[in-house]
Design goal:
The protein has 7 helices and 19 strands. It is an alpha+beta fold. The chain has 2 domains: 167 residues, D-amino Acid Aminotransferase, Chain A, domain 1; 165 residues, Alpha-Beta Barrel (D-amino Acid Aminotransferase, Chain A, domain 2), CATH 3.20.10.10. Strands 1, 2, 3, 4, 5, 6, 7, 8 and 19 form a 9-stranded mixed beta sheet that branches. Strands 9, 10, 12, 13, 14, 16, 17 and 18 form an 8-stranded mixed beta sheet that branches. The chain has a two-stranded antiparallel ribbon with strand order 11-15. The longest helix has 16 residues. 41% of the residues are buried. Bound molecules: 2-OXO-4-methylpentanoic acid (COI). 2-OXO-4-methylpentanoic acid (COI) binds next to loops.
């Protein structure tokens, strides 16, 4: 499906591109930004002043509510370029729906659909040289909304900024991931904001993740906040477990992010006739499966991480190694997803969106 362009956005052109300063073969995730960014303000009850302008600093009151109460949400998407130079997005409608779901939960006004797609379309065309061809290269798209009203009363802001930044990307994790299963800290609680992309969900993980990093692990697999008994998600990724030939993943609920890559993996598994169980998974069944050799794979799924295999997990200070696999479920789903994303295969699900 093609994106529709409307004419609601002003464009302020750059004088010189920064692109020649960038080493596209050595990109750390999320450190380099393209020439342009999109900005739109919410004030007097409406979204207005949509503009694409050179990437650069903002001037915001230090009393803006985002700094005091964390009223901020975001999304993660990617644009891909095929060998003919055509630019593609993967299921962008899902990101649009989810950012508004996130906004609604944090009392932020929803953003109009037409403007969201016009912004993406216009921005990606202006910065198309920043999308490199080749499997694994992409332009990470970061839409986000922040509360900009000045004032420290603890109430929703009357003013917001919706912005989109673009960052050329390669892989998020350069090799297999080592994870710790959470025993005391929690990411999300029933009735909370775990299912949405609230900025604070990520900040709350930094300290426990630092503790894990000190021990040589990159990520935490979060467990339920009540008993730390059920496996939930990894914070930057949803998680899948392969026990013998059955694929297991936790069901969506108000603690687990409704991942777009997650639901795509489930659809690919169903298409392949793989037995998949979307249900609560206990830590103890995964530990037992590791001990008796039936645990074959653990992998994470996410926009940034795509599919990231886990090689080691630790629980209660015991270390469990996953058997080495080269042609397991993780590599199969990664290949199938990327072939759809890069326009190298048929797209039977209608997931690919062409950017004109
Ligand atoms: C994404 O996959 O887009 C994420 O949200 C992960 C991000 C925190 C790097």
């Amino acid at each position: 499906m093609d994106l529709i362009t409307h004419q609601n956005i002003s464009v302020l052109k750059i004088i010189n591109s920064k692109i020649n300063e960038v080493d596209f073969n050595n990109l750390a995730f999320g450190n380099v930004f393209s020439d342009y960014m999109f900005e739109c303000n919410f004030k007097e009850g409406t979204w207005q002043d949509a503009i694409i302008k050179p990437f650069g600093p903002l001037t915001i009151s230090p009393a803006a509510k985002v700094f005091h109460y964390g009223q901020a949400v975001f999304e993660g998407m990617k644009a891909y370029k095929d060998e003919n130079g055509t630019i593609w997005l993967f299921r962008p409608e899902e990101n649009f729906i989810r950012i508004n779901k996130s906004s609604k939960r944090l009392a932020i006004p929803e953003f109009p659909r037409e403007l969201f797609f016009e912004a993406l379309q216009t921005l990606l065309n202006l910065d198309k040289e920043w999308i490199k061809t080749g499997l694994g290269n992409s332009l990470y798209i970061r839409p986000f909304v922040i509360a900009t009203q000045s004032g420290v009363s603890a109430s929703p802001s009357d003013e917001y900024k919706f912005m989109i930044l673009l960052s050329p990307a390669q892989s998020y994790y350069s090799s297999d991931v080592k994870v710790v299963i959470a025993e005391s800290y929690s990411r999300a609680a029933d009735g909370g904001v775990g299912a949405i992309k609230a900025a604070g969900n990520y900040a709350a993980q930094f300290y426990p993740t630092n503790l894990a990093k000190e021990k040589g692990y990159q990520q935490i697999i979060w467990t339920d906040a009540n008993e730390h008994k059920y496996l939930e998600e990894a914070g930057t990724m949803n998680v899948f477990f392969r026990v013998n030939d059955t694929l297991l993943t936790a069901p969506n609920n108000d603690r687990i992010l409704d991942g777009i890559t997650r639901k795509s993996v489930i659809a690919l598994a169903e298409r392949a006739g793989i037995t998949i169980e979307v249900r609560r998974i206990t830590v103890s069944e995964i530990v037992s499966a590791s001990n008796d050799g039936s645990l074959k794979e653990i992998f994470g799924s996410g926009t940034a991480a795509v599919i990231s295999p886990v090689s080691v997990f630790s629980y209660k200070d015991k270390v469990y190694h996953l058997p080495p696999t080269t042609n397991g479920f993780a590599s199969r789903f990664k290949k199938e997803l990327m072939e759809i994303q890069y326009n190298l295969a048929e797209d039977p699900f209608g997931w690919r969106y062409k950017v004109n």
